[in-house]
């Protein structure tokens, strides 16, 4: 196939894949909730989950707090800056400290007034 040719878009296949990715993200959410030792996670559900591509773009999001999904791609961008792609492989867990990512969880101030707290 040359670069000018495009694959035909199949909306049914697209829907099946999208629903499968969302199901994976929801299963991740359930697994985190069931295995967490923190009451904040298993009672308040203060978490979120998502499936991302190798470039850190969100492909599907699961249940949870929408604001967390809104910054997920930015958090992953911070991880991708710290780790080489070949270091990130299936089954590997990466733990990060949010303050190291700077703008993901920082409050914005104008003078003495708090303007935004994502």
From TrEMBL:
Domain named Hydantoinase B/oxoprolinase: residues: 10-91
Any Pfam family matching the protein: Hydantoinase_B
Alphabetical list of InterPro entries matching this protein: Hydantoinase_B
Domain of life: Bacteria
GO-annotated molecular function: catalytic activity
Identification of the protein by name: N-methylhydantoinase B/oxoprolinase/acetone carboxylase alpha subunit
Organism: Agrobacterium larrymoorei
């Amino acid at each position: 196939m040359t670069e000018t040719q495009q694959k035909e878009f199949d909306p049914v296949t697209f829907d099946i894949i999208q629903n499968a990715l969302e199901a994976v993200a929801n299963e991740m959410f359930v697994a985190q909730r069931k295995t967490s030792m923190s009451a904040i996670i298993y009672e308040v559900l203060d978490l979120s989950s998502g499936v991302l591509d190798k470039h850190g773009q969100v492909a599907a999001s699961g249940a949870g707090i929408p604001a967390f999904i809104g910054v997920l791609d930015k958090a992953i961008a911070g991880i991708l800056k710290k780790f080489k792609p070949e270091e990130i492989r299936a089954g590997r867990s990466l733990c990060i400290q949010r303050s190291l990512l700077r703008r993901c969880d920082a409050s914005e101030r104008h003078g003495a007034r708090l303007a935004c707290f994502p």
